[in-house]
Design a protein that fits this description.
single chain; 140 residues; alpha+beta; Thrombin, subunit H; 6-stranded antiparallel β-barrel; 39% strand; globular
Length: 140
């Protein structure tokens, strides 16, 4: 049974930075997949379920730091749910979608994050339409 609110996008060689909340000691981690609601990354750091993290996305135009909570650990894979508010999430999704065009990190097609039901008036696109045009996922 699928419990996720937002569709995931699988990524290959997408590096972000992670720090435990309040430590400001960011370390690079490789993202396995991402959605508007959270992400899964690989790490060798000691992390526990329930830990609060800051995830830093060093995009080319600006850096975004999102708070998150560890909700799943399986070996080196860590599942994080973003704990930001909806406005911060939409800002992140819009920035990610703008940046993904230049990064070419996932597939040959454009792979966007979506917020179901959200209409991006500034771009004139309905994110539900983008959902129907996600493209194939990258296999690891």
């Amino acid at each position: 049974m699928e419990r996720r609110e937002y569709p995931r996008v699988k990524l290959f060689k997408f590096i972000v930075e992670m720090s435990k909340k309040g430590e400001n000691n960011f370390a690079p981690v490789e993202v396995v997949n991402i959605s508007a609601g959270g992400l899964c990354f690989l790490t060798r750091s000691i992390i526990y379920k329930g830990d609060l993290l800051d995830i830093r996305f060093p995009f080319s135009r600006r850096t975004i730091v999102l708070p998150g909570k560890v909700v799943r650990i399986h070996g080196r894979e860590v599942g994080v749910q973003f704990t930001c508010n909806k406005d911060e999430m939409i800002d992140f999704v819009n920035t990610y979608n703008d940046e993904i065009q230049a990064m070419r990190i996932s597939t040959k097609e454009n792979v966007h994050l979506i917020v179901p039901g959200y209409n991006d008036v500034g771009k004139g696109k309905d994110f539900i339409d983008i959902l129907l045009d996600i493209g194939p996922e990258t296999k690891h």
